[in-house]
Amino acid sequence: MKIVILSQNSTLYSTKRLREAGEKRGHQVRVIDHLRCYMSITSYRPSIIYQGGPLTDVEAVIPRIGASHTFYGTAVVRQFEMMGVFTANESQAISRSRDKLRCLQILAREGIGLPVTGFAHSIKDIEGLISIVNGAPLVIKLLEGTQGIGVVLAETKPAATSVIEAFRGLDANILVQEFIKEAQGADLRCFVVNDKVIASMKRQGAPGEFRSNVHRGGKAEKIKLTPEERSTAVRAAKAMGLKIAGVDLLRSNHGPVVMEVNSSPGLEGIEGATGVDVAGKIIEFLEKKAGSSAPRDRIPY
């Protein structure tokens, strides 16, 4: 099978592991910078050109689209879909998960556990916004933030007001969420492939740090999920339409709550913590689905 990995950097751990896993199973794997692709949008004959030549005979695509290039990256994925190529995650599903507000609204519609969340436009509504999440302490998040960047814990109402006013003064869109104190700076990363959790780890924030991101000094260890946590992760991925997803949960007093659904989850932390060959599981998924004649679930554009 001819597999294309859409990635800007072929030396990244996740990209290398996916390529190694594909080649180990006898596939032809090529890493392509999606930002260097250009497209011919023509009726009946859509095509993608890379380094001066058309990409042909591609049977499966693994999108590894960076958050800052979601618009163009999903356009490339959509073009592959128009060409009839199987994509591990579809363009619309990626777009849904990247829009944090839209993601939360979809999860809420499906009845999936979430932290109490508020969203507003005007600074005149700050007091009401804070009251939605039952006051301070509360968490303020930039909609465009990644890897814990743009996430602030406000311990008091005056501090929350100042941070919200500052962000809105920069015309930045934000969410406010209840602070899940009982999580004690830890979250669960559930790696979902084809509607199954194949690996899970607990990420513990560094001392004094409420964010558990490994990029911010957090530590990871293998963990066994409860049936409810496993079900929540799978339901969240399905709600987004994602076949490959990293679902981040917090353990709250009222059950597991979803913090984020990631369409391009990293492999290094989860493979290191669990010993699971996640890259191999992803390639196995492609083998089962890319050659299937059965129609795939489609998310309307």
UniProtKB/TrEMBL annotation:
<keyword id="KW-0464">Manganese</keyword>
<dbReference type="InterPro" id="IPR023533">
    <property type="entry name" value="RimK"/>
</dbReference>
<feature type="binding site">
    <location>
        <position position="260"/>
    </location>
    <ligand>
        <name>Mn(2+) 1</name>
    </ligand>
</feature>
<dbReference type="InterPro" id="IPR011761">
    <property type="entry name" value="ATP-grasp"/>
</dbReference>
<feature type="binding site">
    <location>
        <begin position="211"/>
        <end position="213"/>
    </location>
    <ligand>
        <name>ATP</name>
    </ligand>
</feature>
<dbReference type="InterPro" id="IPR013815">
    <property type="entry name" value="ATP_grasp_subdomain_1"/>
</dbReference>
<feature type="binding site">
    <location>
        <position position="141"/>
    </location>
    <ligand>
        <name>ATP</name>
    </ligand>
</feature>
<comment type="similarity">
    <text>Belongs to the RimK family.</text>
</comment>
<feature type="binding site">
    <location>
        <position position="262"/>
    </location>
    <ligand>
        <name>Mn(2+) 2</name>
    </ligand>
</feature>
<dbReference type="InterPro" id="IPR041107">
    <property type="entry name" value="Rimk_N"/>
</dbReference>
<keyword id="KW-0687">Ribonucleoprotein</keyword>
<feature type="domain" description="ATP-grasp">
    <location>
        <begin position="104"/>
        <end position="287"/>
    </location>
</feature>
<keyword id="KW-0067">ATP-binding</keyword>
<feature type="binding site">
    <location>
        <position position="260"/>
    </location>
    <ligand>
        <name>Mg(2+) 1</name>
    </ligand>
</feature>
<keyword id="KW-0436">Ligase</keyword>
<keyword id="KW-0648">Protein biosynthesis</keyword>
<keyword id="KW-0460">Magnesium</keyword>
<dbReference type="GO" id="GO:0005840">
    <property type="term" value="C:ribosome"/>
</dbReference>
<dbReference type="GO" id="GO:0016874">
    <property type="term" value="F:ligase activity"/>
</dbReference>
<feature type="binding site">
    <location>
        <position position="262"/>
    </location>
    <ligand>
        <name>Mg(2+) 2</name>
    </ligand>
</feature>
<keyword id="KW-0689">Ribosomal protein</keyword>
<feature type="binding site">
    <location>
        <position position="248"/>
    </location>
    <ligand>
        <name>Mg(2+) 1</name>
    </ligand>
</feature>
<feature type="binding site">
    <location>
        <position position="248"/>
    </location>
    <ligand>
        <name>Mn(2+) 1</name>
    </ligand>
</feature>
<dbReference type="Pfam" id="PF08443">
    <property type="entry name" value="RimK"/>
</dbReference>
<dbReference type="Pfam" id="PF18030">
    <property type="entry name" value="Rimk_N"/>
</dbReference>
<feature type="binding site">
    <location>
        <position position="187"/>
    </location>
    <ligand>
        <name>ATP</name>
    </ligand>
</feature>
<feature type="binding site">
    <location>
        <position position="260"/>
    </location>
    <ligand>
        <name>Mn(2+) 2</name>
    </ligand>
</feature>
<feature type="binding site">
    <location>
        <position position="260"/>
    </location>
    <ligand>
        <name>Mg(2+) 2</name>
    </ligand>
</feature>
<keyword id="KW-0547">Nucleotide-binding</keyword>
<dbReference type="InterPro" id="IPR013651">
    <property type="entry name" value="ATP-grasp_RimK-type"/>
</dbReference>
<keyword id="KW-0479">Metal-binding</keyword>
<feature type="binding site">
    <location>
        <begin position="178"/>
        <end position="179"/>
    </location>
    <ligand>
        <name>ATP</name>
    </ligand>
</feature>
<protein>
    <recommendedName>
        <fullName>Probable alpha-L-glutamate ligase</fullName>
        <ecNumber>6.3.2.-</ecNumber>
    </recommendedName>
</protein>
<dbReference type="InterPro" id="IPR004666">
    <property type="entry name" value="Rp_bS6_RimK/Lys_biosynth_LsyX"/>
</dbReference>
